[in-house]
Design a protein that fits this description.
It is built from no helices and nine strands. By secondary structure, it is mainly β.
Length: 109
């Protein structure tokens, strides 16, 4: 069975929670990379999945030094999300973070 690999991006993310993607079926998030694009200061990043009722923090206020990135999913871990789940990101400095999310769409079809 063919897999539907997808990528979702957001650039210049800041202090407001930014939706990177909303699951439309049972999907699997296989990678989340957060890059500090601020030239002068480290940032603290948060990644949250809203499950329709609650915000579930995958990482909260994780420090990312200048010129560095954080891989939120490591060592083969995956996050299974279902239709309507929303992946959101933010950091503590305006327009300071770029985000790349890799996912498999329609994993259970």
């Amino acid at each position: 069975m063919a897999q539907n690999f997808r990528r979702y991006t957001a650039n210049a993310v800041g202090t407001a929670a930014t939706t990177v993607f909303t699951a439309n079926t049972f999907d699997t998030v296989i990678g989340i990379a957060l890059a500090n694009v601020n030239a002068t200061t480290s940032i603290n990043a948060t990644v949250t999945i809203f499950d329709g009722t609650n915000d579930i923090d995958l990482v909260k206020n994780a420090p990312i030094p200048v010129g560095s990135q954080l891989q939120v999913i490591d060592g083969g871990a995956k996050y299974v999300v279902q239709s309507g789940d929303v992946l959101k990101v933010n950091c503590d400095v305006a327009s300071a973070m770029d985000v790349w999310v890799s996912a498999v769409d329609d994993i259970s079809t």
